[in-house]
Each structure stands twice: as structure tokens, then as C-alpha cells.
Amino acid sequence: LLLETQQYSQDATELDIILDVSEAYFGVLLAEAFVKIQSENVTVTRKNYDIAQAKEAVGYAGTTDVYRWQSQLALNKIDLNDSHAQLNQISFNLNQILNRPISESFITVDSNETDSDHFKAYLGIIELIKNPKDIENYGDFLVSEAFTNLPEIKQLEKTIDAQNRILLSNKRAYYLPTISLNGQYDYDVKRLGVTPLPGQEIKDIYPTWNAAIALQLPIFQGNRRNKEKQQTEIEILQFQDRLADLRNKLELQVRSNLETARASFSNWMLSTEAAAAAQKNFEISQNSYQQGLLNVTSLIDAQNAALQSELNVTAAKYQFMLDFMGIERAIGRYYFLLPLKEQQAFVQRYIQFMSKNN
Prior knowledge:
358 residues; mainly alpha; elongated
């Protein structure tokens, strides 16, 4: 039982490590996306710079626009350089967690592929959640999954089982005797450096042995056995209280992580809408600037708004992934990393749970 307790402790450590690696890996994906966005922004700024130069050449705009875009291009390149540096730092961190050479390069999986492969089944659950009551029921379902899967709970349960086994031994000590068997066998293989005295004769070497069996039934031990039994009973009660407290804390973690993930998913969707609107506004502003209907400051504002919106939607996307992994850790199993078939089985259990509780 104690061995099983240690094995569950190892399982909990493995779950924590998977979460640490996932957070570092999603951090790399996010940094890569930021580099791509900043690189595209530099390309857009360079295009606007070319537009300003063309307008100046035909006398349609002054040199101030050219200098303004030249300055903006330099600033955007600084942001791109910072993004590259951040990507390298986060990549070093992932290598360190994986115990790889710090500067060793690696290839990441495209985030869109990650979405399609691992979130398909869960998006089906999200479609089933239509009101606050559904969210509450989903939280109840996740709590039931957590109580079934979490190694921290199983570890304490096995500890209580071990204490109950000790308590049984303490109770049996009142009437079960202690039996011992002892034996000894001695034989001199050879006597070295023994010189007999004149007239003395060395006797032959004979082995000696003895054996004994003993049976003890202590009657008076100063109330020691009763104290040991009471101590074990107290320890069992303490572990049971710890188990109840652990269940409450883990349920709190599950429900809190669910609310966090729900909010981050909503933020992801809203950020996507905002980014689409900001991009359309920028395209309209860019055309207006090219036709001389908009000044350079307004176009730069529109471009920065589109850039920030794109950064926000990317950050919201990966924040949802991280929050989702937090839910998976809280329920004690990473269905996110399992084949689609097992994810679908998870969804079916949820549907059955909902049918029983409605």
C-alpha cells in the first residue's frame, strides 16, 4: 500500500511536468506568432513608406510624410528585433525544462494543426454549453472526473488504507502471539598458526550448533498496545480530514480553472472580432491615404490598432490553450494529448452525465 502511495506521488509529479512543458511550448508558439506578426507589420510599414515616397515624387505630399514613415519603419524593426530575442529566450527555457542542450534548435508544430487535432472534440462540448446552468453542470462533471483520476486523492486514500492495515495489526496484537525461530551453526574451517606444546595433542574440529523456538504472548506492557492503537486511530482521522480538505481544494481549483478558461475563450472570440474590424479599418485607411484623403498620423494610428488587435487575438488564443491545460491538470488527465477517439469518449461521458442530471 505504501508502494502504491509512492507511485501515485510520481504520477502527480509527471502531471506537473507535462503542464510545465506545455506552458513553455505554448510560450514558444506565441513568441513565434509574435515574430511573424511583427515581420508582417514591418512589411506593411515599408509599403506605406514607398507610398509616401511616390506621393512626394509627384508632389502629392511633403517630405514630412517620408520622414514620419522612415521613423516608423525603424521603430517597427526594433519591435521585430525584440520579438526575435524573446523567442530565443523562451526557446532556451523550453530546452532547459526538457533537459536538452540550451541552444539546440527544434521545429514546432503549427498552431493551426494543434487546434484541429486536439480541440475538435472539446469544441463540441463548448457548443453544448449555452447558459450558466450548463456551465455549472459541466463543472460538476469535471469535479467527478477529477475525483476519479487525480493521483493526489488516490495517494491519500492508499495512505488511509495503509493506516487501517496498521490498525488491524494493532488490534490483533492483543491475542496473536509472537513466534520466533533462532538457530546458530559454528565450524572452524582451519586453524592457522597453532603449534601444539610438547606432549599436547590437537583435538579434531567438530561443528557446534543450536536451535530454539520461542512463543511470546505479552499480557502486561504498560498499556503500550492500547496507546499504539489509539495513535493509529487518531492518524486515520487526521488523514481523513486531510482527504476531505484536499477534495474541497481540488474542486475549488477545477471550478476556478473552468471559469478562467471560459473567460479566456470568450476573450479569444471577441479579440478575433476586434482584429477583423481593425484590419478592415486599416485597409480602408491605407487606400484613403494613398488617394490623399487621409493624413499620415491617422494611417499610423489605424496600422498600430490593427497590429495591437492581431497581437491581442494571438495572445488570447494561446492563453486559452494554457488555461485549458490548467483544467486538464486539475482533473488529473490530459485528454488534450490523447487520440481523438478517447476525447470523444470523454464527450460521451459528459453527455451521459448531463442526461442523468437534467
